[in-house]
Amino acid sequence: xATSAQSSRPLSPHLQIWRFTAxxxxxxxxxxxxxxxxxxxxxxALWLYALAFSxxxxxxxxxxxxxxxxxxxxxxxxxxxxxxxxNGLRHLYWDSGRGFALNTARMTAWLVYIASFIAAAxxxxxxxxxxxx
Amino acid sequence: xAHKGTSAFIMQRATAxxxxxxxxxxxxxxxxxxxxxxxxxxxxxxxxxxxGLMALFVIIGAWHxxxxxxxxxxxxxHSSVRKTLSALNWLITISIxxxxxxxxxxxxxxx
Lengths: 133, 111
Ligand code: HEM
Hints:
heterodimer
C-alpha cells in the first residue's frame, strides 16, 4: 500500500508525541464497550434460547449469573451498555454538527464516565437485590 | 466509514437512535428479572409487549453491532483475514437474529 516515500512521512496522530485526554479515553472506551456488547448479545441470545428450549441449560445460566464470575460478566455488560449508550449520545450530538468545542467535549467525556458508573451501580444493585439471593 | 460509504453510516446512526429507548428498557426491565426462575421468566417473556421489545432490542442491536464490527475490521485488519472475520461477523449476526426470533416465537406461541 504505502510506498517508501510515503512511509517515511510522520504519522498523524503521532505515535510518540501525544497527551492523555478524557476525550481520547472515551473514544477508546466506546469501541471497547461495543465489543463487550457484541459478546453480550451472543450471551443474551443463548439465555433466550435456553429459556425457550432447555430448562436445564436455563437453570445453569441462572445459577452462573448469581456466582462471582457471572456477576463480573453481568456488571461488565451493564456498565458497557450504560457507557456506550451515553457516549453514543455524544456521537449523535456531534453528527448534528455540535458539541465540538474542546471544553465541551472534555466535560461531556468526564460526565459520561461518572454518570455511566452511577447508572450501572443502580441497575446492578436493583437487579441483584431483587434476586434475593 | 471509508469502505461501505454512506448507507452503513446512516444505518449505524439510525439503529443507534432506535436502540436508545430499547436499551433503557432492557436495563430497567430485564436486568431486574435476573434472578427469575424458569417458569417466571417464561411467563414474563410470553407477554406480547415484553416479547416484542426483547426481540427488537436484540435484533436491532445485532444489526448495529454487525456494522460497528465491520468498521473495526476495516480499521485494523488489512490482510486476507479480513474476509474470514467479515464472514464470521455475518454468521454470528444471522445466528443471533434467527435464534432470538425462534426462541421468542416459541415462548409466545408454543408455551
Ligand atoms: C445491543 C447494544 C449495542 C451493541 C452490541 C453495540 C455495538 C457497537 C459496536 C461493535 C460499535 C463499533 C465501535 C466502533 O466503531 O468504535 C458501535 C458503534 C456505535 N454505537 Fe453501538 N452498540 C449497542 C448499543 C448502542 C446504543 C444504545 C447507542 C446509543 C446511542 C449506540 C451508539 C453507537 C454509535 C453512535 C456508534 C458509532 C461510533 C463511531 O462511529 O465511532 N450503540 N456499537
